[in-house]
Amino acid sequence: MISNAIKQKAQQIKLVIFDVDGVLTDGGLYYGAEGEAFKRFNVKDGVGLKLLQQTGFSVAIISAKDSAPLKKRIKDLQIVHAVLGCKDKLEAATGLAEKLGITMDEVAFCGDDMVDLKVMAKAGLSIAPKDAYHMVADVADWTTESLGGQGVAREVADVLIAVNGSLKEAYIATMLPEFESSNYLDSIKE
């Protein structure tokens, strides 16, 4: 159940920023025999990220890591704003907000570990997965029911869309064959 205080904060949000490891993934680091990295992403989160974009939210990824699998996922989901290999997430988030002409009060940030605390403190809505590090969960405005990599972005999308519009209407679009196409977001912006 989402509190009225969270709903009020959610009504102000224009940009939703997600950390990756521990939020969009389970936080595990998988390496092949040759040292190549593998990441497991949740399909439900992908739908959530597309739904956010489709319903007018800007979406961004800010990650301390940079990898080929992450770049591929960002490209597949047509996420325009991504800062990878980031050393200062607050600086990156503030820069994205300025670029979009919004304030940090209009930013939701979802993170799971200590490195995310600075930006969470400045975001209009701070979100942590259910299995976030306890010090992060303790300061988050909202802790999801989902664990990292198991639908966090979808849960965030559902709440933000429901509070700011019509979740039912958004889900009608997911039933269209073109929703799964790689240029779907381009087609709805025309």
From TrEMBL:
Q: Does the keyword Iron-sulfur apply?
A: no
Entry protein name? 3-deoxy-D-manno-octulosonate 8-phosphate phosphatase KdsC
* Binding residue positions for Mg(2+): 19, 112
Q: Which organism is it from?
A: Bermanella marisrubri
Does the keyword field hold Hydrolase?
yes
Binding positions (substrate): 21
**Gene Ontology MF terms:** 3-deoxy-manno-octulosonate-8-phosphatase activity; metal ion binding; N-acylneuraminate cytidylyltransferase activity
Ordered alphabetically, the record's keywords are: Hydrolase, Lipopolysaccharide biosynthesis, Magnesium, Metal-binding
Under the heading CDD domains, the entry gives: HAD_KDO-like
- GO BP term, example: lipopolysaccharide biosynthetic process
Please state what class of enzyme this protein is. Answer: hydrolase
- What cofactor does this one take? Mg(2+)
Q: Name the PANTHER family for this protein.
A: HAD SUPERFAMILY MEMBERS CMAS AND KDSC, N-ACYLNEURAMINATE CYTIDYLYLTRANSFERASE-RELATED
Subunit comment: Homotetramer.
Top-level taxon of origin: Bacteria
